[in-house]
Amino acid sequence: MTLRIVQWTTGLVGRNAVKAVLAHPDLDLVGGYAWSADKAGQDLGVLAGIDPIGVAANDDVGALIALRPDCVLYMPLQWETDHMVRLLEAGINVVSTANFITGRSYGDEEMARLDAAARRGGVSLYGTGANPGMANTLGLAAAAFCRRVDRISVLESVDATHYASKDTWVSLGFGGPPDAPGLVEKVRQRMLVFLDAVEMMAGALAVELEDVRFDVEFATATTDVDLGWMQFPRGTVCGLKGRWSGVSGGRAVIELGLLWRLGYDMEPDWPVERGYVIDVDGVPDVHLRVSAESADLADYGASTADPAVNAIPAVVAAAPGLVTADRLPLVTARGLVAQSRVSTRSA
Questions:
Q1: Is the pLDDT of residue 55 over 60?
Q2: Which of 92, 171, 190, 251 has an alpha carbon 20 to 30 Å from 229's alpha carbon atom?
């Protein structure tokens, strides 16, 4: 049987999720949530930038629940725990890319509330994406080469000029002064999901953490920069280098690094790796370089959406409650090999 899917919002990531669900042989897109009133009633295909598919978005949560979907792909820029709880209690699995890995970054009370809602509904809640998400899973997989692990480092190092989500960057201080009062704490709070990821990796490795530390640097525009969808006056933030460090035994054993830049005229002029640099220090040392690229800018955001879509069958089959990547079977692009696809549907 195919799994019935509702897409929650159609922003940069959500638009790619719509296309990924339509491409998957075992998923059926039956509805969508419209965050803004002007999108309500519009065809999800049109909202995703493709041909109409005959499924309209709406802003009525009750109507979406009435569709009895197996899973909601929850992808808003700003999440609402009440909505997530309502879906879970209605017996609907939720796969989220909305700053969610374990829910710790939402606060312990909200995390417990979500777990309890999922258990009451007999369903699962799972968070993923590109980073945090797949990048952390690859780091854990790389560690399987080792008989001793001293440190795992996952660095995302990218030119994000084409990630046209102004609200995301403004929330991280981009376009503002680097010495703005409270900026470091503002950025830390917006990026708390990386705390989730550090703790998830520590749990998978049976490591007890003493602390999770955060540090950040900012780069500024050396000229006025106009990207079309966002402007950076000279001297304002257009680059960020951050690091989350999970400490055990007085040293960092898990490090999640981030280097994001927008535009090409900045100081410091940090070079980028165009992807992920994953290093495992141990016996033996393991080093990975991973890049997820597309020539079509419409696919920008697919590397966040696709891991969520491909995880749906495993999440639906998982035990009720919060689940993390280390608790799921291997998630692959099952059924998606071009020109040789065989339906994986069961009777």
A1: yes
A2: 190
Cβ(49)–Cβ(90) under 8 Å? no
Q: How far is CA 142 from the centre of its chain?
A: 20
Where in the sequence of the chain do the CATH 3.40.50.720 domains occur? 3-130+301-327
Would you say residue 341 has pLDDT above 80? no
Q: Are strands 266-267 and 211-221 parallel, antiparallel or unpaired?
A: antiparallel
Contacts of 27 (CB under 8 A, 6+ apart): 2, 3, 5, 21, 309, 312
CA distance 215 to 32: 38
CA distance 340 to 63: 37
Quote the tokens at residue 304: 């966040």
For residues 161-167, average pLDDT: 87
Is the CATH code 3.40.50.720 the one for domain 3-130+301-327? Answer: yes
Q: What are phi and psi of 268, to 5 degrees?
A: -65, 150
Provide the residue type at 13 as one letter: V
Calpha distance 139→278 (Å, rounded): 6
Q: Are strands 286-290 and 275-283 parallel, antiparallel or unpaired?
A: antiparallel
Q: Is the pLDDT score of 176 beyond 90?
A: yes
Q: Cα(117)–Cα(113) distance, rounded to whole angstroms?
A: 6
